[in-house]
Model the fold of this input.
Amino acid sequence: REGGKVKNETLGNLSHLPDALVEIIRRSLQGETFVPLAQTFEITCSRAHGHVEAVATAMQRLGLASLIASKPCRERDRVLAMVASRILAPQTKLATTRWWHTTTLAEDFAVTDASEDDLYAAMDWLLQRQGTIEKKLAARHLSTGGLVLYDLSSSYFEGATCPLAKRGYNRDGKHGMLQVNYGLLTDGRGCPVAVSVHEGNTSDSTTFMPEVHRLRTNFGIERVVMVGDRGMISQKAIDEMRDTDGIGWITALKSVSIRSLIEQGQLQLGLFDERNLLELSSPDYPGERLVACRNPQLAKLRAHKREELLRATENNLEKIKARVAAAKLVGTGA
Done:
């Protein structure tokens, strides 16, 4: 008061501050103490989750759990966890049990206590369920009259204890190595339905007809069209399929057979100047449709290869010619 009058002095204006900050100031004036958030909490660990959630969601949408086993069990949890780990960070089983603790995968899939031996035991359990799983996949992806794709591949093998490991036609460029062959059966889109494992020296054609019979007996597919390359579908298999109702096939003729069609005049190469695709028939293939297709990319590749061979031959002949001219070529008739 000055002279009996009340006077006010503005020390600060808080009206422009956010309500939350005004509340903190009010509570501070009342004696409360506030500290920075970083000093209140201590980060003990941080585990990745986003990629685990993405894979888990995709597996759920695909209904993978019910495909593996209808009822939940420890083995199913471990198999699902191994599938997710294989997608996110493919490693050995021992490394996998260590890696998934760096993410939320172990908790999300309920495998926090799983050991390396548990994973191998789950794989043995999964192998026993292979037939059931493949039947479920066939019911989901295959249909009568639909298209079925099949091919045989191989993986080279390190070690000497696998009874299936043999030396055979190598597709990995690892010549001289042991290998294991495996056949994959898919629907027309390439979605896997069934897999079979064979000795490494098994030829493609010998695995084909067992897969055809499996389609009919195990999967109940009465009418189907099999697609395979010329090394897969042999003439013996074609003869057997021809005598079996409901089985069709699409394959490619070998070069010897194509040459025979040309020599007989049933396939005229001049037609390809005007057409890229034509259908023909031959008494050598009764009841079969033969479709000839011109592949411009393959023609270009082969033309380029011929040019390279001609140039290489000319270079070698020039060297021989030079040696003859210099009287340096030694040999009979030189």
